Amino acid sequence: MNRWSPVLLIPLLSLLLCSCAGHGDGSSGKPPAQTQLLRVGVSANAPPMVYRGPDGLIGLEIAFARGLADYSGRRLKLVRLPWEEQIPALVAGKTDIIMSAMTITPARSYRLSFVQPYMATSQIALVRGPDYNRYSDGFPALLNPGVRVGTVSGTSGDLFVAQNKARGVRTTFSRSEQAVRALLAKEIDALVYDLPGSLYYASLYADQGLVAVIQPMTREQLAWAVGSDQQQLLEQANRYLSSIKADGRLRQLIEQWIPFYRQLYNNQP
């Protein structure tokens, strides 16, 4: 079931196109591969960004992690952590970089150093198809006290709803899969979740009638984060990002894991 119209898609181009500034000359400055690991913190519960596949972890961020490890001459080690442990682990030196669809926020920027953002995103609603018209205006429709809104604990969507929906029922779930099952079971009326994840679930459960309401509620920038003392890695990550933007690999990777982007590019005015 595909309800994404060009009228809605075209205005989103400016929101979703990648914004990555150039850094350096593109050289990797490779450290000795036999002595250095690239320990990448990931939370494997956010398809299509990071999740478990048949043969291990897959997703857009995993592709980025492999590319960065190769670019910097390090051996990749994926460190799976619950989302709430990502920043403490990085600050404690247990990981080198977080590559797990992290939104840049002022609070996080006090403790971490962010690489240039690799894509813009937003929070949107995932609903059942027959209810689409009720929620087509986006967040204002969710403010009705009778609307049961679900969120995933610790996410930007959870914080956004907590701050803005003062009345009515809000149910938080520990994992996105649990929230989607609750939506299918009619235990909630709408799930507020990030755009890539909502589109993934809308595609996965299209035959059961789930639809993404492509009406942005927020504007967010996704980026990788390193410790404030990791200047060399920060520079390497920025150069890697600039290189894959320049040669088109960034767009290719995003479209591979988030096919919705291909529709956006095909509907440029």
CATH architecture of the largest domain: 3-Layer(aba) Sandwich
How many domain regions? 2
User: By CATH's scheme, which homologous superfamily of the largest domain applies?
Assistant: Periplasmic binding protein-like II
Q: What is the CATH first-level class name of the largest domain?
A: Alpha Beta
- Reading the helices and strands in chain order gives HHEEEEHEHEHEEEHEHEHEHEEHHH
Shape call: globular
Helical segment count = 12
Assign the CATH topology of the largest domain. D-Maltodextrin-Binding Protein, domain 2
Mean pLDDT: 86
Strand residues, percent = 15-25%
Rg (C-alpha, Å): 19 Å
Number of E-state strands: 14
Largest sheet: 6 strands, mixed
Low-confidence runs of at least 5 consecutive residues: 1-34, 264-269
Indicate the structural class: alpha/beta
How helical, in percent, are the residues? 25-40%
What is the rounded distance between the termini? Answer: 25 Å
Can I get a quick summary?
This protein is of the alpha/beta class. It is 36% helix and 24% strand. α3 packs across α10.
